[in-house]
Automatic annotation (TrEMBL), chain A:
<dbReference type="InterPro" id="IPR050093">
    <property type="entry name" value="ABC_SmlMolc_Importer"/>
</dbReference>
<dbReference type="InterPro" id="IPR003439">
    <property type="entry name" value="ABC_transporter-like_ATP-bd"/>
</dbReference>
<dbReference type="InterPro" id="IPR003593">
    <property type="entry name" value="AAA+_ATPase"/>
</dbReference>
<feature type="domain" description="ABC transporter">
    <location>
        <begin position="9"/>
        <end position="214"/>
    </location>
</feature>
<dbReference type="GO" id="GO:0005524">
    <property type="term" value="F:ATP binding"/>
</dbReference>
<protein>
    <submittedName>
        <fullName>ABC transporter ATP-binding protein</fullName>
    </submittedName>
</protein>
<keyword id="KW-0813">Transport</keyword>
Automatic annotation (TrEMBL), chain B:
<protein>
    <recommendedName>
        <fullName>ABC transporter substrate-binding protein</fullName>
    </recommendedName>
</protein>
<feature type="signal peptide">
    <location>
        <begin position="1"/>
        <end position="29"/>
    </location>
</feature>
<dbReference type="InterPro" id="IPR006059">
    <property type="entry name" value="SBP"/>
</dbReference>
<dbReference type="Pfam" id="PF13416">
    <property type="entry name" value="SBP_bac_8"/>
</dbReference>
<dbReference type="InterPro" id="IPR027020">
    <property type="entry name" value="YnjB"/>
</dbReference>
<keyword id="KW-0732">Signal</keyword>
Automatic annotation (TrEMBL), chain C:
<keyword id="KW-1003">Cell membrane</keyword>
<dbReference type="Pfam" id="PF00528">
    <property type="entry name" value="BPD_transp_1"/>
</dbReference>
<feature type="transmembrane region" description="Helical">
    <location>
        <begin position="421"/>
        <end position="440"/>
    </location>
</feature>
<feature type="transmembrane region" description="Helical">
    <location>
        <begin position="245"/>
        <end position="271"/>
    </location>
</feature>
<dbReference type="InterPro" id="IPR035906">
    <property type="entry name" value="MetI-like_sf"/>
</dbReference>
<feature type="domain" description="ABC transmembrane type-1">
    <location>
        <begin position="353"/>
        <end position="544"/>
    </location>
</feature>
<feature type="domain" description="ABC transmembrane type-1">
    <location>
        <begin position="54"/>
        <end position="268"/>
    </location>
</feature>
Length: 215, 413, 561
């Protein structure tokens, strides 16, 4: 896996427009394990940019430029073919599945065998210090636990890049720094090129990478 | 026109994604049975299913129809399904819409319980199969001489296009616990209402029962009742109807709700009597009143009576549409309905309580006795109590009266 | 495949309706070859306008439809404004939902048995007043059609209330209420000034559907409306079933006229919306707080309770009638009770329930599938533009049934599909699908799109995302839509009878046929039996998610939207 990551995530002169108005324009390359922060006021099209990268942006938006991940242009690929993971400010755990079910949902199908898949999920839970939570109802978890499960879910889907859409804004301040370092550590450990949009300067500082301001 | 309609429809069919291959009619043509050769009719009928469109508002009648269906299935291998209608005209509409669509074979309606205006309309528009009725074996028992209406449906000759099924005669009924003295003519009714305003009404024409009441009054008041046997447009209709309108002029303000509202049909008039909203009501069958007592709809002190100078009577029939899918089966069923056995059960108020169309003297001895021994029910009138049966006017009078009534009294606002 | 679902759905709705309309419009202008009408003419129109009391019939349909709709909307809005977010509001929700499963005719009969001069209320008064005869006054079939309005209002309030409920979450009502309260507005005024403008656009379609229904209603009108003359739709039915087949031409032009009346009523309504909207904006900005609104709140609760109470009490009277022996006026209860009629009907009821389900289940399944297909397609293509086209799906709701039923029957006969299960199901689908769409589209569109995006970004295919994420999240909404659909198919009388050629005896066709016999016991029995299937349907929508997600607390909140 690591050798395919050598090029990271490239945004080549990407411009997002809606009804002729330019919302956001960026041109940058994010290396594996690097966390780039995009700062800007709300409504500045940051989330639209993330939507464009992972392929879920409605075609009412007009986008030019190229998104390349590990040397492969993403244009024309469906979201599920892109291997781009995303975390929102809400954890968006599926309320109808158990904690383990949420994680297993993310686990690619090439990992075969019930026992094997179960073990992978248990291992992920364990690395989030949540052993024994497989059958729990997500609605019964604390905010911090939910955030961790959400991250583990993204990572289990074996992404080649990670997008963070104001991921910590709903956590209370005590929890925020703890979850931040948990997320950032894992991004680096998995050598994921990571793009975070936020309007909290502390997020950018904690990420310790480049901070790009847009207006 | 029809072919253009078809083109349009097939285009629509293609557009709606419905396979246009099914454009041909679903059921295959049913050859007209040779009623003169009864065995061939029975052979052809075996295995057919007869969809009998009949008013379904009375559970006892529905039960009787189910019984008749069982009998012909066991005896002749004919299946009978009752299509329960709220109005006979629904069946007429169906045959008409099939004719509109060019379905001249394999229609949905195999038999209709019918009489009067509906029959006249179907006959006039060539929507009926036949003649067949008078060639069936059991027609021999029918009382053609004593009951001329069995071959003249509201004066329109049946011409073998429908088979008589039951007799009906207007009778009035009231609660003996509340009323001692009852009016026995149109004039007495008016005088009685002056003393008891608001205690009588009739169903709103063009409801069948309501129109029947108007015709009853008309028949009583008209100078020469024989005029009513001719089509209205061949007579001085205005002069003929004048006494009726004069009478209603006096009657209307005395009616229940001051004539501003009416019951919808005979059944809701019955409900009004049960609720003590009116004192007198009427029906086309005194057996029906007995049945209603049995079903708790009326108190058991209710009794029937007829007007002194007679009341209207008619016959109801079964007919077969020109495009029926199971004509032979329908003929076999109609013949069974005229059989002494079926007619006996029909007259028994325990099952239905409607009068037979058969002539007693044509029946075998045991059957005559069986009819004589029937317990007719507490509110039913024995044949001897029924007085004169007045003939129904020609259907054109009914239309005329209904239209004029609607103009005069149908709009009170 | 999915791309074609919206087109297919719209064609399945528009096709039969327009074919039916053509079959009505042609005879209206003299074309009906089966009756010898081959040349266009205006005779049917002349005959129609020569009908005595036509103006009164038109006025009844038009005015009563508008009034009934306005009262229903006003009560529902007032009640929501006064009580939203309170315990009483939730209690009302629980009372009104089951009332949706009461067919219109059943509710109307119940109301009639309650308020008629010989009804329960008068019987109660008679105990004290010592009456032995019902008063000779027209409470039902009254000349002004007030009983009809009452019947329509009682039945439309639950429908509009539940439609409003599903629109509320998107208007962010709870927080808006907090804001208006902290700005010093009374609860009711705050809701009207700040929330209503956002809620109303979402319930506009259901409101128009109610208007179209109220303006062209037949069954409720037969039971409660005046008859001298009757509203236009009732008279059309009379002309259509007149033995004089020549009246078919005039009946057709009347059916076209009925359509015009519905359109005119909608135009008036929409104009009214504009005027009230404009006046409302001034009112919203004039700063009046209406802090003390307890009287209004009390009144609104009373009105809503009365509507629900009338239906529930009506059902109670139906139940008593169904087991009644002879029941004289002014007795409060029958002299005797008997289960004999129930026993007789229960033997027969099995097959008609089966037939009802035989038609209902496919119709509901197809409708839910089509609607989910349309909505899923909307999500996948991300196009909101198609939404406008989807409005066409509501056409059958805005069209008076009587204006296209005869034509529809001819259409299916021409296709050779008449009296097949397929055609009956297709006929029902025309009426079921719009209601399913109405009930499902709001929750579906309100579902947080990021769930789907998350699933896709986790590598799930769109199909997997639909089946494993969106559909389970919408379990209750889908089941509710299915239950609404089932209630609609169970209630269909004309389409079942006309398209099925009487081959399909459902609970409703049996009920209507037996009701024509006028025995209140039979009306009671079948009125209640008609409720059984819809009621079971609605019960399952509560039960299934509760069992399926018994260990998933988050599903409760998720599905409310």
């Amino acid at each position: 896996m690591p050798e395919t990551l050598k090029n990271g995530l490239e945004l080549r002169d990407v411009r997002v427009r809606l009804d002729g108005r330019e919302l956001v324009a960026v041109d940058l390359t994010i290396a594996p394990g690097e966390i780039v922060t995009l700062m800007g006021p709300s409504g500045s099209g940051k989330s639209s940019l993330l939507g464009h990268i992972c392929g879920t942006l409605p075609d009412t938006f007009d986008v030019t430029g190229e998104v390349v991940l590990n040397g492969t242009p993403l244009a024309g690929l469906t979201p599920q073919e892109r291997h781009v993971g995303i975390l929102f400010q809400d954890d968006l755990l599926f309320p109808h599945l158990s904690v383990g079910g949420n994680l297993a949902f993310a686990l690619p199908s090439h990992i075969k065998g019930r026992g094997n898949r179960h073990a992978r999920v248990e291992a992920a839970l364990s690395s989030a210090e949540m052993d024994g939570f497989y059958d729990r109802d997500p609605a019964t978890l604390s905010g911090g636990q939910r955030a961790r499960v959400a991250l583990m879910r993204v990572l289990l889907s074996e992404p080649c890049a990670l997008l963070l859409d104001e991921p910590f804004s709903k956590l209370d301040s005590g929890l925020r720094s703890q979850i931040r370092s948990f997320v950032f550590d894992l991004c680096r450990k998995n050598s994921l090129p990571t793009l975070m949009v936020t309007h909290d300067p502390d997020d950018g500082e904690a990420a310790g990478g480049r901070v790009i301001k847009i207006d | 026109m029809r072919s253009r309609m078809r083109t349009f429809v097939s285009a629509l069919a293609l557009a709606t994604g419905i396979a246009a291959t099914s454009l041909s009619t679903p059921a295959f043509a049913d050859p007209a049975p040779d009623v003169g050769n009864w065995q061939s009719v029975l052979d052809q009928a075996r295995g057919q299913t007869v969809y009998w469109h009949a008013w379904g508002g009375e559970p006892r009648i529905n039960d009787y129809i189910a019984w008749a269906g069982e009998q012909v299935r066991e005896r002749y291998g004919v299946e009978v399904v009752q299509v329960k209608l709220t109005d006979t005209a629904d069946a007429v509409t169906r045959v008409l819409s099939e004719k509109t669509a060019g379905v001249d074979d394999g229609g949905a309606v195999d038999m209709i319980w019918i009489n009067g205006e509906n029959f006249a309309a179907m006959k006039r528009n060539d929507l009926l199969f036949g003649p067949w009725a008078e060639q069936t074996p059991n027609f021999a028992y029918v009382d053609v001489e004593g009951k001329p209406t069995v071959v003249n449906d509201f004066t329109v000759p049946t011409d073998g296009l429908e088979a008589p099924w039951g007799m009906a005669q207007v009778s009035f009924y009231y609660d003996t616990a509340k009323l001692d003295d009852v009016p026995k003519s149109a004039q007495e009714l008016l005088e009685w209402l002056v003393k008891h305003p608001g205690r009588f009404t009739y169903p709103q024409p063009p409801n069948y029962m309501g129109s029947t009441f108007l015709k009853q009054i008309l028949t009583e008041l008209v100078e020469d009742p024989s005029v009513l046997q001719q089509p209205a447009d061949e007579t001085d209709a205005k002069a003929t109807l004048a006494p009726l309108w004069g009478y209603l002029e006096d009657l209307q303000p005395l009616l229940w709700r001051d004539g501003q509202a009416y019951p919808q049909n005979g059944a809701s008039m019955r409900t009004l009597l049960a609720d003590n909203e009116v004192d007198i009501a009427f029906s086309f069958s005194s057996g029906e009143v007995s049945s209603a007592i049995e079903a708790f709809e009326l108190p058991d002190t209710v009794r029937s009576y007829v007007f002194e100078n007679g009341t209207l009577g008619n016959t109801n029939f079964v007919a077969i549409p020109y495009n029926a899918s199971a004509k032979a089966g329908a003929v076999v069923l109609a013949d069974f309905l005229m059989s002494p056995e079926a007619q006996l059960r029909k007259q028994d108020p325990q099952y239905w309580g409607a009068d037979t169309v058969l002539a007693m003297d044509k029946l075998p001895k045991d059957m005559q006795e069986a009819f004589a021994n029937l317990d007719l029910g507490i509110a039913s009138l024995a044949p001897s109590e029924r007085g004169t049966v007045l003939p129904e006017p020609h259907p054109s009078w009914m239309s005329l009266v209904e239209t004029e009534w609607q103009k005069r009294y149908g709009v009170v606002q | 495949m999915l791309r074609f679902v919206p087109i297919l759905t719209i064609v399945l709705m528009i096709g039969p309706v327009s074919a039916g309309l053509i079959g009505t419009v042609l005879p209206a202008f003299g074309i009906l070859p089966a009756l010898g009408g081959t040349t266009p003419s205006l005779d049917p129109w002349q005959a129609l306008f020569a009908q005595p009391g036509l103006d009164a019939s038109i006025r009844l349909s038009f005015v009563n439809g508008l009034i009934a709709t306005a009262i229903s909307v006003a009560i529902v809005m007032l009640f929501c404004a006064a009580w939203q977010g309170t315990r009483i509001f939730r209690a009302m929700q629980r009372v009104l939902s089951p009332i949706l499963s009461v067919p219109h005719a059943t509710a109307a009969f119940g109301l009639a048995f309650l308020i008629a001069p010989s009804g329960w209320i008068v019987r109660l008064v008679a105990q004290f007043a010592g009456w032995d005869r019902p008063p000779d006054i027209a409470i039902i079939h009254d000349p002004w059609g007030m009983a009809l309005i009452a019947g329509l209002v009682a039945k439309e309030i639950p429908f509009l209330f539940l439609m409003t409920l599903s629109a509320l979450p998107q208007a962010d009502t709870d927080r808006t209420a907090q804001v208006t309260a902290t700005l010093g507005y009374g609860k009711t005024a705050g809701w009207f000034k700040a929330t209503l403008p956002r809620v109303y656009p979402q319930i506009r379609l259901p409101v128009l559907a109610v208007l179209a229904y109220s303006t062209s209603v037949v069954d409720v009108a037969i039971i409660l409306a005046p008859t001298t003359p009757a509203p236009l739709a009732v008279r059309i039915l009379g002309w259509l079933s007149d033995p004089d087949l020549g009246l078919r031409f005039m009946a057709s032009s009347a059916a076209v006229l009925q359509l015009l009346i519905v359109i005119a009523a909608m135009v008036v309504w929409i104009a009214g919306e504009r005027i009230i909207g404009a006046l409302g904006r001034h009112w919203a900005e004039d700063g009046h707080r209406f802090r003390k609104d307890s009287a209004v709140r009390g009144a609104s609760a009373l009105l809503a309770l009365e509507a629900a109470g009338a239906v529930v009490l009506g059902l109670a009277v139906l139940l008593v009638w169904s087991v009644a022996g002879f029941w004289a006026f002014p007795d409060l209860l029958p002299r005797g009770f008997s289960l004999r009629l129930w026993a007789r009907e229960l033997d027969a009821i099995g097959s008609s329930l089966t037939t009802t389900l035989l038609i209902g289940i496919p119709a509901v399944l197809v409708a839910v599938t089509l609607v989910l297909g349309c909505l899923e397609n909307e999500v996948r293509t991300g196009k909101a533009a198609g939404r406008r086209a989807m409005l066409l799906i509501y056409l059958p709701l805005l069209m008076p049934q009587i204006s296209f039923m005869f034509g529809l029957q001819v259409f299916f006969t021409l296709l050779g599909l008449e009296r097949t299960l397929l055609s009956v199901v297709l006929g029902h689908l025309v009426f079921v699908a719009p209601y399913v769409f109405l009930s499902l589209s709001e929750p579906f569109r309100a579902l947080d799109p990021r769930y789907g995006q998350t699933a896709l970004c986790l590598g799930a295919s769109p199909a997997r995302t639909f089946w494993l994420v969106r559909l389970p999240l919408l379990t209750r909404a889908v089941l509710t839509a299915a239950a609404v659909g089932l209630a609609v198919t169970v209630g269909q009388y004309l389409p079942t009878l006309l398209i099925g050629a009487g081959r399909f005896a459902t609970v409703t066709t049996e009920a209507v046929a037996l009701a024509s016999g006028g025995d209140r016991r039979m009306i009671g029995i079948y009125g209640l039996l008609q409720m059984v299937l819809p009621f079971v349907g609605f019960a399952l929508t509560l039960l299934i998610p509760a069992v399926l997600f018994r260990n998933r607390r988050g599903m409760g909140a998720q599905n409310k939207g």
